[in-house]
């Protein structure tokens, strides 16, 4: 069953078109990897799925994005609910200038959890899930900025998990991580897939191959092709996909 | 996480937009009423003759020439002096000084000076510039006094501006082999410039409307000639306005209103450049 | 009268005009904000006849003005009172000699709210009862039996003004002796607002401010104890019959400055034109002969 | 494209950097010299003042009447006036200013922001005497219609208008602080399902707090120092009261009244001006030291 | 010949020690890869090599770092010359809020180049070297912030190359890049190695294996071991190195 259904999506930054006629359907409880060269529109596309592009002035969109059967670009859509249920981790870590604890508790507090022990529980679970707990459990009150780049990124993943979303959008979440942390995050994603739908942008072909069920290849704003990961990596339909994937090793 | 709570948050959000908008309107409306009051009284009296005449006991003959020119002289010296010293202080505190006792001492000093009443600056200016430095009751004394008065505004605004420039931009510059000053001049200042200008706008606005310290320093109430050097006696618009409003005859209140319009026009012209530059340089990171 | 007052003014205008090219320099006047407008008016006219002379008029108050005057900073001091002993001493120390010229009169008007129907006059004793330092008067009925049981709201000038000094001296017998629980303001126009906005209001300030706001205020005639209540007007302030609330206004001129031709010309011009100009700015000129006397004083 | 310079070089004496540093230090010293100058100007007459008036009377007397024949020197009276005006002004300027800043930085379209901000800044340049009459002729009648017991001169009217005067200082400087908050932080919060208001109040305001507090401090300092509005709209009546509907006098208004009025120099009345100036100076110094101490604590704890 | 010689280096962030007794010597005209889990001190170490840690308040250092025979922590060292000759690319792209052109021209201008056509030449060469020229040649006047994450990172690489350094420090320069750009940057690095010394932090084991001659493995602030890349990847001396390297595939 598909949970996200994108039809004829075009996106413009002012005059400049960044996405051209994208059509894709994303399965529930699966991991979809978005690949493609830098600047091809992966991040842009990802942000259309939870309407984060609303924040950028001058962005216009045509076409529809249906999530669980509703076009999220309709006027009467509640973007806050949408975004709560569709978590997002960005390409660059962006912790709030608050303590580690308050970063994680931020989302749950927004959505009404004030009970201290409940929050403590969420903070611990989320940090553990993002493989950060052991490193920070003694310094939860310290500012998030004193963490290393990779730690900050894991913090942001923990923060996204803390609101318990149904879909997770991740923009190169492991590009700043070392192999061990990466492996743990990947494990986590595979685990999460059982309950959540995950869309992940990655530059790491092996990562896409290891964890995703479906891979979508973008080029210059076009979705060139998408399909089962195995197939895309072994026998793509489009020569450009093949060029790109093999280019890695060329 | 009941939908009731969500509903509440949504309502709060909508409400807050209205509240924030109304709060903004509060200032705008206050200004509109003020301007309406001033303009409706003064507009009939504001003409070329008013700008080019000397004060007179007959309201219809009176003008603001010496006060207008005096104000321009004073602000012409005050603004650059305060800008350079203020920005210099901020740069020293934010970019050069060790965060220790000395910089805390300066910081407290600056915050404290912000709360010293303007007339006390007048007393200082009288003692320091007029008497000790022998500048006399001149434009220069007044301008320097005013510069000290508005210094804290520029310093504090500039400090905040410098502080909000992200560290990674500085790092990028240092890594290219830039010296400290090159980094400040080419990266930090351009990024901080808009907020520094806000400080300048607020400070100049304050300087141009002040009366009391200038009276102490020695601005005269009436003169029938225009100053033509920084060592001349002078008067300024707010003093002229002040004296006119104190007259018993009602007509003087109207020409006071006209003089206020002149003052605001001067202020807005001076600010226009700063506002233009601020808009040009303002970028969101 | 008006007609005759104009004559010397015209003479004054024409004669120096012929000499004008000879005169130059700067004349500095400072002092009382009450007297300032007169000096400004004189300076304005003088400038037409003597464009080479630059006159500035500062308004730092009588005391502030004397401070500069006795330090030798200014040529002329405008004063709404006579020079005080301490100021005299300061002048002596600096060897500043001066002459005192009374150039106009000002009346102090006592006013009540326009809607006040019962106050027909006030005696000096009643004023004192209201304003004396330990006065407990809170209601109009306590001023004079038969007046309503209405609260009395007092307005007066700031305690550092010449008007305050003069009024307290004239009514309460001692300078600055006054009750304190009245509403004070530095600005006479503001006092006008106060009394005209307050039904039980009573206040005092310069006569000129009453003149300009006749329609908003009710003037109270003052009974000097001789049974004749007089409301101030130009006539009775001038001839001194409006008692005790009419006061003299002065200028002080440094003798050294008076040696300078432009200062001398200016003072002469001042005296000759005072009758007309004093009136134009809202004060009361002296009798003609008095000005003649002044002219001889500066020779 | 090869670069054959030695990688490591000895420092050459950089006269320019030294010059710049010295110049900036000089600029920074100006504020200290100013303070020294002010203390110097105030100290002499303050000492003379306290030779005649005991500190005890100064701090405990409930009446302030140096310019009357029956003199009292209770500074509390003027303090209460300053306190009322500053409190009132901050109740107007801080919430309205902050809300305006939030509106401009988070809600308003760019064009609106660029227009409204300079317009509001005009408020900072209106001469205070104009504000004074605005308070007296516009605000006071409204207040008296609502509170019939209010006097023609009252602290409420003056403090509201002082609040309006300092509003652009809060609004403009806070807005700058908020604009400087990186967009990625906002994105982080939006992605968690935060509403615009939550992003503004829970992310942007805390992230810009240092600038916002600085704007508050500047604005309140200006309120404490304000004279003309108070003189005109609140009267010149020193009164020990916390009732905003009464007429009051502030320390600064008193200083202006005395220094511009007909006071003989060298008298005790004249000296009060320096004593009051010094009191105000020490008071703001104390407040500043406490404020700095608090912010330092706060920053460390995060 | 070794160009960088680090002896007994300890680094403290205030009280907290982040580097312990690091000893390493780096060959001229080589690529040295720094690997290790997130938070182990790689970025910290990299920054000690061009004294960028000077910028962080509270940092204290003991030991020596000799570059071309001079201890750069001596008092009379000219840090600006040092940094000009030791270029740096950061973990997170940090373009200036200026146009693309002005970002690249920034360094050359610092060092006195004002001639327009000379600058044009440098901008073009540097952008081409960082594989960005084709994408941005028509929009050189646009703000750098309107580029995608990967484009921004390549811009920063171009910016570092524009001042023509002799040593290049790179903190995960390709983690935000797609495989094709990555491959091109790697090619570039291999090319640059002929003339320059390169120290690169990477989480990508294959990358380290592909391009570096020497690999150094950090853990918890200690340099566990360093040596020829081949050796480190096939037969490391320390079991912890082995654990880490194989952990990737475990
Ligand atoms: N400015 C700082 N103040 C205090 N501690 C810091 C600071 N910067 C880094 N640290 C700490 O020093 C340690 C090493 O950090 P560093 O940034 O060097 O790690 P890294 O190896 O580069 O990690 P990553 O791969 O995640 O970038 C970490 O534990 C980090 O929390
Ligand atoms: N805010 C913006 N304004 C204008 N153009 C933009 C903006 N953001 C991105 N673009 C442009 O849109 C195109 C797609 O950008 P996007 O960030 O989606 O790329 P990407 O595939 O995520 O690349 P990367 O792998 O480098 O992150 C790029 O050419 C980029 O320059
Ligand atoms: Mg991207
Ligand atoms: Mg790092
Ligand atoms: O200004 P005065 O001295 O006349 O009050």
TrEMBL record, chains A, E:
GO CC annotation terms, alphabetical:
membrane
Kindly indicate whether the keyword Transmembrane helix belongs to this entry: no
Entry's PROSITE patterns? ABC_TRANSPORTER_1, ABC_TRANSPORTER_2
Q: Which SUPFAM superfamilies does the UniProt record give?
A: P-loop containing nucleoside triphosphate hydrolases (SSF52540)
The highest taxon in the source lineage is: Bacteria
Q: Does the keyword Disulfide bond apply?
A: no
Q: Which Gene3D superfamilies match?
A: P-loop containing nucleotide triphosphate hydrolases
> Which keywords does UniProt give here?
ATP-binding, Nucleotide-binding, Transport
One short Pfam name that applies is: ABC_tran
The record's listing under InterPro entries reads:
AAA+_ATPase, ABC_transporter-like_ATP-bd, ABC_transporter-like_CS, P-loop_NTPase, PstB-like
* Molecular-function annotations in GO: ATP binding; ATP hydrolysis activity; phosphate transmembrane transporter activity
Checking NCBIfam families in the record gives: 3a0107s01c2
Annotated protein name in UniProt = Phosphate ABC transporter ATP-binding protein
Question: Which species is this UniProt entry from?
Answer: Effusibacillus lacus
TrEMBL record, chain B:
- UniProt GO BP: phosphate ion transmembrane transport
Show the GO cellular component annotation of the record: plasma membrane
Where is each ABC transmembrane type-1 domain found? 68-274
Q: Does the keyword Membrane apply?
A: yes
Keyword Membrane applies: yes
Q: Which GO terms describe its molecular function?
A: phosphate transmembrane transporter activity
The protein's UniProt keywords, in alphabetical order, are: Cell membrane, Membrane, Transmembrane, Transmembrane helix, Transport
Q: How does it sit in the membrane?
A: Multi-pass membrane protein
Main location class = membrane
Which domain of life does this protein belong to?
Bacteria
Q: Where in the cell is it found?
A: Cell membrane
Q: Which Gene3D superfamilies match?
A: MetI-like
The family this protein is said to belong to: Belongs to the binding-protein-dependent transport system permease family. CysTW subfamily.
> What protein name applies here?
Phosphate transport system permease protein PstA
Organism the protein comes from = Effusibacillus lacus
From TrEMBL, chain D:
A single BP term in Gene Ontology: phosphate ion transport
Annotated compartments: Cell membrane; Membrane
GO (cellular component) term, any one: plasma membrane
Keyword list, A-Z = Cell membrane, Membrane, Phosphate transport, Transmembrane, Transmembrane helix, Transport
Q: What family does the database annotate?
A: Belongs to the binding-protein-dependent transport system permease family. CysTW subfamily.
What sequence ranges are listed for the domain ABC transmembrane type-1? Answer: 79-291
Protein name, entry field: Phosphate transport system permease protein
